[in-house]
Design goal:
2 copies of one chain form a homodimer.
Chain A: H1 4-12, H2 15-24, E1 29-30, H3 31-36, H4 42-54, E2 58-63, E3 66-71, H5 77-82, H6 87-90, H7 93-104
Antiparallel strand pairs in A: 1-3, 2-3
Chain A binds a DNA duplex through helix 4.
DNA sequence: TTAATATGATACCAAATGGAATCATATTGG
DNA sequence: CCAATATGATTCCATTTGGTATCATATTAA
């Protein structure tokens, strides 16, 4: 039972993983497809995808011998919730966004 | 000219540093004050504060022999800007928040 | 069936990271 | 001035992390 908030922040901390998330906003991709866009081995990309899965930021659907990686924007909820600590500095607008997203992803 | 976005995400990736930011939402604190709340050496806390400074999330004001650490919510702008890549999933509300914050902190 | 394809898993490595320990520097108070 | 205080800087260490190389497994296609 690891901390989901920590896993999500950890996943976001690496630029390659943020790039992968960026790619997945356009289309779902297999590991091979993602790896094809980076100058690193498929194994390295696989590790990043595992970290992203642990952080709840992507989901994986097995289709035959392929694994389709799909963005899971709901996984950002813990991150955005944490930003609530800055409400005092932002006139409660961040909190408004958070509840809007929660309503949106249910 | 290091990447400010990366530095900010990196700074947020550690739970101790997020706790420090949380503390600083209540009041400005010296290094000694921050260290007094953690079960680790002052040197370790100092390292975290340096990472937070590099990430632009806090500012430091020297007052005599003390260094007052102060929250810098503006430093989160690069992070929130990055979240814009999820606009398609969130009906542009994250983007609205970002511009609201930018206007607020100018 | 069997070879090609797509992925998983493991071992290994260098570099980064979190932390303690220690010494140095600067400022304040008596 | 001088001792106490607050912080900075450096060294060292164990662990984590990003990456490659390699081998194993599962699925598809001919």
């Amino acid at each position: 039972m690891t901390d989901q908030t920590q896993n999500a922040f950890r996943a976001l901390a690496d630029p390659t993983r943020r790039d992968i998330l960026h790619m997945l906003t356009t289309q779902d991709m297999t590991i091979g497809q993602v790896a094809g866009r980076f100058d690193m081995t498929r194994a390295a990309v696989k590790k990043h995808l595992t970290v992203l899965t642990d952080g709840g930021l992507i989901t994986v659907e097995t289709r035959g011998r392929e694994r389709i990686n799909r963005l899971n924007p709901t996984g950002l909820a813990p991150v955005l919730s944490w930003f609530d600590i800055f409400d005092h500095f932002w006139d409660d607008r961040l909190s408004d966004l958070k509840s809007a997203i929660e309503k949106d992803t249910q």
